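Slack export, channel: ligand-projects

TW: morning all. Re-posting the request from yesterday since it got buried. We need the structure predicted with the small molecule present, not the apo form. The ligand is fe (ii) ion; the SMILES is in the block with the sequence. No rush, but it would help planning for next week.
GE: picking it up
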Amino acid sequence: MNRLLKIQDKMLEKIKEFENVNIKRDYPLNWEKVHMISCAHIGKLLAIKRGVDMELAAIACLVHDYGRLVTGKQDNHAANGYEPLKELLMEEDTFTEEEVELIAQSARNHSNKNDIGSPLEEVVKDADVLDCYLYNIQLSREEQRDRLYKVWEELKLGNNYPFNL
Ligand SMILES: [Fe+2]
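GE: finished. pasting the full token output, ligand included:
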């Protein structure tokens, strides 16, 4: 099985485990499931366009909200995902230490939408805002909307930019 499918299976298993854990979640587990998969697709397309490693990009997008999955909370979910994510990725004998670090870092930094990070991090941040937009999730922060605007331009999506966000 390829690495993307492998880690996707692992994430789906984790979500199943969390279905039995009674904590109040800021976002439902069904959203976590849908968002991780659609982000992976968007991330892969952005990576192809930008010449970024597309497998790593898809995987980094898939797991970027792991912190929220584990804690149930949106607050600090990016930073909270860093260590648990490294553990998760190292459980499989699939990733090198360097890859684990790159993926975990892109998750840790994905909420800093103001900062420009590594090309991999940029793919994760942009895929995140674009996916939220596509699901009509309000982009409440200006830096998220700025990002959406830039990625919209980059992908030449035309003049129907959603200014009413
Ligand atoms: Fe996200």
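GE: first-pass observations. Residues 35, 64-65, 128 surround fe (ii) ion (CB under 6 Å). Helices lie at 3-19, 29-50, 54-63, 66-71, 77-91, 97-108, 119-134, 142-154.
TW: perfect, thank you
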